[in-house]
Amino acid sequence: MKPTPNLTRPSEVRSLLEQLDFHPSRVLGQNFLIDRNILNILLAAADLSPQDHVVEVGPGLGVLTAALLERVAHLTAVEKDNRLAPFVRGRFTDAPNFTLIHADILDCALDGLFPNPGMKLVANLPYAIAARLLVELAGLSRRPSVMVVTLQREVADRLSAATGTKDYGLLSILLQRHYAISTLKHITRTCFWPPPEVQSSISKLVLRPEPLGAAVDESALKSLLRHAFCRRRKTMARSLRDWTEDPLPALAAAGIAPTERAEQIPPAKWPLLLRALPPPPVPPRKD
């Protein structure tokens, strides 16, 4: 690896950005981690070993990248930015255990990024894509065994939200079915450069041996959740009448009271309901 400034010092980060004539993009969520303590929390939470294969999204200037490369068998980093990708590639050009993919992570074949069971994701996720990316990763056939990520606090709160709370919804259910989720720390804005407009959190997600409610078609489950949460003010008996003429037998089979609303139903019951319901009606074609 080529020598580089201490990127946990704000002054040296600013100096490097000036040398690169680089102005961080708010649209891409480019807020670079500059706090050594937060970096250490991420690394410790990931419980890394020399046998681990890890994926990082948005390496930025490489502060987390460098630390990961010292600890794991192989690191694959995905960087979208046309200016940062060449910098990261050049900085770690001599690292034999490093692969850089210059692409938008949402355009990548995620199954190809996680070809083997037991792989991990450790990353400072761009805020704009964090929720969507986590949902897609939870839908893979070979899900990451551990994900330790910094993300917008609002998203972290939704990930770990308890049933019946205001933050509980699709994201909570789709991720909690597959992962035990904990919020490790809330992070102040000054831990990043430039400081983001919102507060951040570190979330840890550990893959469950089996999904809550057992395996189901993830796409069909998303459709059911969207249907129910778009009608969250209605009771389930009322909201599902747009899905099936008589939802009461399916609700009974899933152990859901007809008077309950979507936010009152725990993650394990949604797959039971999906299996008990008939397929959704097909909308008429518009010729």
Can you offer a commentary on this structure?
The mean pLDDT is 93. This protein is 33% helix and 17% strand. The termini are far apart. The protein has two domains: 10-207, Rossmann fold (3-Layer(aba) Sandwich), CATH 3.40.50; 218-276, rRNA adenine dimethylase, C-terminal domain (Helicase, Ruva Protein, domain 3, Orthogonal Bundle), CATH 1.10.8. It is elongated, with a radius of gyration of 21 Å. The strands form two sheets. It has a seven-stranded mixed beta sheet with strand order 4-3-2-5-6-9-7. A two-stranded antiparallel ribbon has the order 1-8. The protein is of the alpha/beta class and 287 residues long. The chain is built from twelve helices and nine strands.
Kindly list the characteristics that best describe this protein:
287 residues; 12 helices; Rossmann fold; elongated; 33% helix; two-stranded antiparallel ribbon; alpha/beta; 17% strand; Helicase, Ruva Protein, domain 3; 2 domains; 7-stranded mixed beta sheet
